[in-house]
Design brief:
By secondary structure, the protein is an alpha/beta fold. It folds into 4 domains: 22-218, Up-down Bundle (Four Helix Bundle (Hemerythrin (Met), subunit A)); 246-396, Reverse transcriptase/Diguanylate cyclase domain (Alpha-Beta Plaits), CATH 3.30.70; 422-670, EAL domain (TIM Barrel); 680-808, Rossmann fold (3-Layer(aba) Sandwich), CATH 3.40.50. Strand 19 (725-729), helix 27 and strand 20 (752-757) form a beta-alpha-beta unit. The chain starts with a helix and ends in a 13-residue tail after the last helix. The structure holds ligand C2E. The chain crosses the membrane at residues 21-40, 193-212.
């Protein structure tokens, strides 16, 4: 792909040799015309020179003939003693000398050399030489007497010479004429060819040049247009997904706002943020993350209506504008489609990944709505959607705005409180399963604001984490908790751990371990007395670095616990690499542990996995005996919760620990001290008189009989007691008997479950039987004897089944036969 910079370079690169300008074209034309002109002049001058040379030669020949004739005339005048034209012998001698000079010119002169190439001329010149040699002595003795025979001899020599040279002159003149005619003809032919060819060729050349020029400018224009189009696209679109970017989005928003005002219709802005994208990007690499984003963009585009705009803000954030909205429900429909399409698995290469989306929606008001404000509001709503558990959408409300204001205010108050050290610490004891002793205390921050009253850490810790205020705050907690732990040690409470919550931001500080070492030293607290509770979130950004820090902490000697276990991404592969000592089951799983089979399964899974990794498990938020009993039954090692003790100030903790060092209630009494009869029967019916009647009927059978008038109580009894047989009414207000027994089957699969119903809902009965949830189905009114027998049979069945589990390692689920009493 072409970058903006590259495009700029391309545009400004001087590429003149490939793209001639008009000036170059003109220059080429001038050079071409000039060369044509010079060629023409050259031919003409050569022709002139040749003509000149030819003229000179003809002149020499005629001149020689003339000089021979002149000698002959002066000889005649001398011998005839011409009275008009008196001629002396000296004058004759002079004419003779002239002729001699001419002869020498023939012989030695450069100009005559071409003439001598003519054979006839050569012969004539030789004859001249011979004649001159013969004449010279004759001339010396010549008398002015026409009868001097020397006169006759000289004239006899001269006459043929004169004719010979004259004839030669004529011959050369003739041949020169022919030659010059030929030359003129040749020249004029060439000239006329050139006269036509030159303009034609130059015209053609010009045309070609012009055509090339045109083609190049057309190409240049085309490529410039394409590049400027590309530039405009790049400036307004996201390079990765090709969706409109922030700049174009702002344009479209303004347009939507104008249209809305004009058409008197509303429009919505939707802020889409992917859930769980960051870990994918971090663990699989950015190139992989980019592929996911491209696929998300593609899927979202498919959900858009023709007028909608989908833009990418950056990262995993997208904005959707829904113009001309008839009703807010239209936005809801799209939001649901976006959530639906995003939650489908993404197949990228050989990987299948799962992500979801959280959406915030804001609606334009009746008047003009500022586009930026709408985005901010949608963003706020999106954050709310994240808080609500992700994978959902939220509308922007005034309420949310108020919450934001409150957060800003909280941040200011928090800063003042940090500066004034306006916090205190409460400590919540933790108990051991075996002996009920206090094994540790969790330090919990308390902020009693002078005007705002008590502010929960659940409110201010997230704000402090966002603003970075958590670091000084967390250091204060560490210092105070270490100081108080030292005090407790000094008072003789040994073998207990001070557990301090450490936020991810603080933990990830590069000097965290060093600072902790200093704090421990200052407090003179042995590192073994301190435990740091960290959450799985510290592993998210850089797991290797986090593990390195944990190892450094272990080398320092402090203990490590994973807090809120099960709520994060709980990567088992990491868990086994972590140098930790304890796993804390989150309160959210404990809350419904006795009745929610999923929570129960998670808690049991955590305990079993931790034990395999030789880690201790502590359950937090234990609020009642049933939860405690359930967890205890499932081998949880330690407990913390209101059921045992609430968080308390240090002074109160000292009293509490001193009393609890010899534990009695609740741990001991609930645990080992309780004698559980072998056969326990649980009766569940919302009618008290039925419960009483059944109790009366069965009390002599030797069973421990537990009764509950609602499902919740029944679950609590099941958690606390070892129940083998359950007899439940079918028709109850909050939950049907078959539903209740189905849940019991998941929680306590080894129990034998019987329904006693006043009516027959065949479908629910057959379903329950088929799922293996019930052992027998009895109808009312019952037959006393038969009921007793069936209960006895159920206990016997349980015994057989549990012994089968012991031997074969699995549970016998009952025969599934429904018997109507
Ligand atoms: N409903 C119920 N609640 C119980 C029960 N037993 C204990 N709790 C509460 O559960 C929270 C346990 O702490 P957490 O899970 O670490 O959760 C803590 C922890 O994440 C954070 N936090 C508290 N103090 C600090 C601190 O010093 N530093 C950091 N970073 N976080 C802290 O604030 C959260 C809430 O603290 P708290 O309000 O003190 O709430 C405490 C405690 O008072 C119970 O049986 N039922």
């Amino acid at each position: 792909m072409l970058s903006l910079a590259q495009l700029g370079d391309e545009r400004h690169k001087p590429n003149w040799w490939r793209r001639p300008s008009s000036l170059q074209l003109l220059l080429a034309l001038m050079i071409f015309t000039a060369s044509l002109y010079f060629a023409y002049r050259n031919i003409e001058q050569t022709h002139n020179l040749a003509a000149l040379r030819m003229g000179q030669q003809i002149h020499t020949l005629f001149k020689t003939s003339e000089e021979v004739s002149s000698l002959s005339r002066s000889l005649r005048r001398y011998v005839l003693k011409d009275p008009v034209d008196k001629t002396t012998l000296e004058q004759v001698q002079l004419s003779f000398e002239l002729l001699v000079s001419r002869y020498q010119l023939f012989r030695e002169g450069e100009a005559n050399r071409p003439l001598l190439q003519n054979e006839h001329v050569q012969q004539a010149v030789e004859a001249l030489g011979d004649a001159l040699d013969a004449i010279e002595p004759l001339l010396a003795g010549l008398k002015a007497d026409p009868y001097d025979k020397r006169y006759g001899q000289i004239q006899g020599l001269l006459m043929p010479l004169q004719e010979q040279f004259f004839a030669l002159g004529k011959e050369i003149t003739l041949s020169a004429d022919v030659r010059s005619e030929q030359l003129i003809k040749q020249y004029s032919d060439t000239h006329s060819i050139w006269a036509i060819a030159a303009p034609v060729i130059s015209g053609l050349l010009l045309l070609i040049l012009f055509f090339l020029q045109l083609r190049r400018s057309a190409r240049l224009n085309q490529s410039l247009r394409a590049k400027s189009h590309k530039l405009a696209h790049l400036a307004s679109h996201d390079a990765l997904t090709a969706l409109p970017n922030r700049a174009l989005l702002s344009d479209r928003l303004s347009q939507a706002s104008r249209n809305a005002q004009f058409a008197n219709k509303g429009f919505a802005v939707m802020f889409v943020d992917l859930d769980g994208f960051k870990p994918i990007n971090d663990s699989m690499g950015h190139a992989f993350g980019d592929l996911v984003l491209v696929e998300v963009a593609h899927r979202l585009t498919q959900q858009m209506r023709p007028d909608d705009t989908l833009a990418r803000l950056g990262g995993d954030e997208f904005i959707i504008i829904l113009p001309n909205l008839d009703q807010p429900e239209d936005a809801v429909a799209l939001a649901e489609r976006v959530i639906g399409t995003t939650s489908r698995p993404f197949k990228i290469g050989s990987y299948e990944i799962h992500i979801t989306a959280s959406l915030g929606i804001s609606l334009s008001g009746p008047g003009a709505s500022s586009p930026e404000l709408l985005i901010q509001q949608a963003d706020l709503a999106m954050r709310q959607a994240k808080k609500q558990g992700r994978n959902n959408y939220q509308w922007y409300t005034q309420d949310l705005e108020q919450k934001v204001d409150e957060r800003v205010n909280l941040r200011i108050q928090l800063q003042r409180a940090i500066e004034n050290e306006a916090f205190t610490l409460n400590y919540q004891p933790q108990f051991d399963r075996q002996n009920g002793r206090v094994v540790g205390y969790e330090a919990l921050l308390r902020w009693q604001h002078a005007e705002l009253g008590f502010i929960s850490p659940l409110q201010f810790i997230p704000v402090a984490e966002n603003t970075g205020q958590i670091v000084p705050l967390s250091e204060w907690v560490l210092k105070t908790a270490c100081r108080d732990a030292r005090l407790l040690l000094d008072q003789g409470y040994k073998g207990t751990l001070m557990a301090v919550n450490i936020s991810g931001t603080h933990f990830q500080r590069s000097n965290f371990v060093e600072r902790l070492r200093v704090i421990l030293e200052q407090a003179q607290l042995p590192p073994e007395a301190l435990e740091l509770e960290i959450t799985e979130s510290v592993l998210l950004d850089n797991p290797d670095k986090a593990i390195e820090t944990m190892q450094a902490l272990k080398r320092l000697g402090v203990s490590l616990a994973i807090d809120d276990f099960g709520t994060g991404f709980s990567s088992l592969s990491y868990l086994k690499r972590l140098p930790i000592d304890r796993v804390k089951i989150d309160r959210s799983f404990v809350q419904d542990i006795i009745s929610d089979q999923n929570d129960a399964a998670i808690a049991k899974g955590i305990i079993s996995m931790a034990h395999h990794l030789k880690l201790k498990v502590i359950a937090e938020g234990v609020e009642n005996e049933a939860q405690f009993a359930f967890l205890k039954k499932n081998h949880c090692n330690e407990f913390q919760g209101y059921y045992f003790a609430k968080p308390m100030p240090l002074a109160q903790l000292e009293d509490f620990v001193s009393q609890r060092q010899t534990p009695k209630e609740p741990v001991e009494a609930l645990g080992n001290a309780q004698k559980i009869p072998e056969q326990t029967l649980l009766l569940l019916d919302d009618e008290e008189n039925v419960l009483r009647a059944l109790t009366r009927l069965l009390r002599r059978e030797g069973y421990q009989i537990l009764t509950a008038s609602n499902a919740q109580d029944a679950f609590a009894l099941l958690a606390k007691h070892d129940v083998q047989v359950i007899l439940s009414d079918q028709r109850m207000p909050e939950m049907s008997g078959t539903e209740f027994l189905s849940r019991v089957k998941e929680l306590y699969p080894e129990t034998i479950r019987i329904i006693l119903s006043g009516y027959t809902d065949l479908k629910s009965v057959t379903d329950a039987v088929n799922r293996g949830s019930i052992y027998k189905f009895l109808t009312r009114p019952w037959d006393d004897g038969q009921l007793r027998a069936i209960i006895a049979q159920a206990f016997q069945h349980h015994r057989l089944a549990t012994s089968a589990v012991d031997e074969n390692g699995r549970v016998d689920e009952g025969d599934g036969i429904a018997s109507i009493g």
